[in-house]
Specification:
Length: about 120
């Protein structure tokens, strides 16, 4: 299955929303990093991994639903997503460190299973 290339949409400052195609399996490192106006993203059920810094600095992203196929979330995935209020996650086998760092507006994290290997959860 296709993977988004590293930094695919990095620093696309006018990108406001995106629906990923159903053939994407991995969201590569920094794929949406710096997309400051990205407010919504639909992640398909085919995604199994979200790499480091994938959404770092997406300052308009308010809510994310991670599909049940995701088994790994790498470090600093949502770093400095300062508007992120709601995050829904399935049973994920591996979380790397600081994946929520700087998510200062975070109010709700809904877990649809058990968290395994949560790594260092830091919200500052």
């Amino acid at each position: 299955m296709p993977k988004l290339i590293k930094q695919t949409f990095k620093d696309c400052t006018s990108l406001t929303s995106i629906t990923l195609p159903s053939n994407v399996s991995i969201i590569r490192a920094s794929a949406f990093s710096g997309c400051e106006k990205l407010a919504s993203i639909e992640i398909p059920a085919t995604v199994t991994s979200i790499e480091q810094f994938a959404f770092c600095g997406c300052k308009s992203l308010r809510s994310v639903v991670i599909p049940s196929g995701v088994t790994k979330i790498e470090k600093s995935t949502f770093k400095n997503c300062t508007a992120l209020e709601t995050l829904t996650i399935p049973t994920v086998k591996e979380f790397e460190e600081r994946w929520l760092e700087g998510c200062t507006a975070l109010k709700t994290v809904s877990v649809e299973g058990e968290i395994k290997g949560a790594g260092e959860i830091v919200v500052l």
